[in-house]
């Protein structure tokens, strides 16, 4: 996070973008420990004043149950700020090695558009006969025409704006026999408005196989909340590491702040060691700039990041990218690269 903020500040200086930051330590440890909750009661009013939230991952599963920390913060933001688009790029960047044999930059370059406020992540359900042999647990998948159509529209428009104009829909209409055939029918319906977009669909099981074996066929992939979640760890893993992957949780209407964060979590297994890859966080800052129309500034930040990664220096790349660099080494390298763009 500190390197992400620093990158934004450097870019802001070059492009004269008046960025104003305020920090809130709403973390599982700091805030939860003292308050027994992830956020203060007035969080919505407080955060609504901002244009964007730049979010560091939460989660300390040994101290706070994940469903408490995530439903108490990130998932709450997504829902209550109606960030119904979760936009996640998968791009193989020069200098970062793909675990897939023979894949070069250009071979993997697509977007995942994930439905972000409903679907499998619903709070409808519950438990009965708890603790008995007849225990029942249920959690309903909830899809609404309003919710599905708006994410499909966004995905079709994104596909239409790209040279290849391809949209892939993630389905499972063979097994999930109510929601998924209906999802497919909404895709068919929406496709009528975009005759120039080439649409295909794959069941989620074979789709994961294609991500590994034929990642080059994808351009824009749209999926439900859970399918999009799974695909957006697999996709970046195919580009080398989830440590570089960014994510925009977007309220396209701008009625509420959008939230930009890395795809990865709090990585408790390496926390405090100073070796976390900051690129996902930095790239999320790039998405933030782009979202607000600072396209040139965003392009410069991307270039700085790509230049550093492109050198493929093992002293700079972090361990998840096969190097022995630290967060500080690569973070500072990207900041220095940005400084090099000053006139
Ligand atoms: P994770 O993404 O935190 O970690 C998975 C693996 O990837 C770990 O081995 C980790 O060391 C590695 N990794 C992740 N980010 C990295 C980075 N920047 N550099 C190098 N390696 C990195 O996923 P998890 O282990 O499933 O979850 C850990 C905690 O984070 C849980 O509490 C989970 O709920 C939470 N989580 C939070 C978010 C979020 O706040 N956005 C997202 C995912 C998971
Ligand atoms: C993500 C994360 C979250 C999700 C978790 C932490 C609730 O995995 O942003 O991809 O499932 O959406
Ligand atoms: Mn995830």
Automatic annotation (TrEMBL):
Residues 1-334 form the Isopropylmalate dehydrogenase-like domain. The keyword Magnesium applies. Its EC number is 1.1.1.83. Its cofactor is Mn(2+); Mg(2+). It comes from Xylaria arbuscula. It comes from the Eukaryota. It catalyses: (R)-malate + NAD(+) = pyruvate + CO2 + NADH. Keywords: Magnesium, Manganese, Metal-binding, NAD, Oxidoreductase. One of its GO terms (molecular function) is magnesium ion binding. Belongs to the isocitrate and isopropylmalate dehydrogenases family. The lineage of its organism: Eukaryota, Fungi, Dikarya, Ascomycota, Pezizomycotina. It is an enzyme of class 1 (oxidoreductase). Pfam families: Iso_dh. This is D-malate dehydrogenase (decarboxylating). PROSITE patterns: IDH_IMDH (PS00470).
